[in-house]
Amino acid sequence: MAKGLDDDLAIVRELANVLNETGLTEVEMERGGLKLRVARQSQNTFIEAPQPMQASPAPAAAAPAAAPAPEAPAAIASKGEVVRSPMVGTAYLAPSPGADNFISVGDMVKAGQTLLIVEAMKTMNEIKAPRDGKVIEILARNAEPVEFDEPLVILEA
In this protein, which residues make up the domain named Lipoyl-binding (predicted)? Predict the structure, then answer.
């Protein structure tokens, strides 16, 4: 290996060690003309919101209610045309904090119209409508992570 590549790999290893030691999910550095970003794939953690107290206590033998299961892909697809995320990133429903969302349920959209943004590696990627249609559901949540091929929006079939 070339000396420069060995040095670059050593820097990447050092940054990876920083991630492991600190618990951070990503670290970025720039030195001279070299800019490096090392990120750890994070697992989504879901925390259930506290439920309101019941008026009367449940019987002791009753099992706790299961959390609702996510909709199956076939159930989502049967509602209409699914617009999916082309990448892993963070979904943003508006062009900037405090601005109106690009779309709302019930809106009519034109082919090529921006539905939302997926930010990946500090790049804002506009997700555009594949065709004219009516927005019947917005599955993405603002400032929440999305996975590759995750359903984001459903347009009327």
Answer: 80-156
- How far the first Cα of the chain sits from its last, in Å, is 54
Strand order in the sheet with 114-120: 123-128, 114-120, 89-92, 144-146
Set out the domains of the chain in order of their start, with CATH numbers: 3-39 (no CATH), 73-156 (2.40.50.100)
Buried-exposed string 24-37: b where 16+ CB fall within 10 A, e elsewhere: eeebeeeeeeeeee
Q: Are strands 123-128 and 144-146 parallel, antiparallel or unpaired?
A: unpaired
Q: Which residue has the tokens 């601005």?
A: 99
What does pLDDT average to in each consecutive run of 10 residues of the chain (157 residues)?
Answer: 69 75 72 71 51 53 50 61 95 94 96 95 94 96 95 92
Is 102:96 a contact under the CB 8 Å cutoff?
Answer: no
C-alpha–C-alpha distance, residues 137 and 141, integer Å: 11
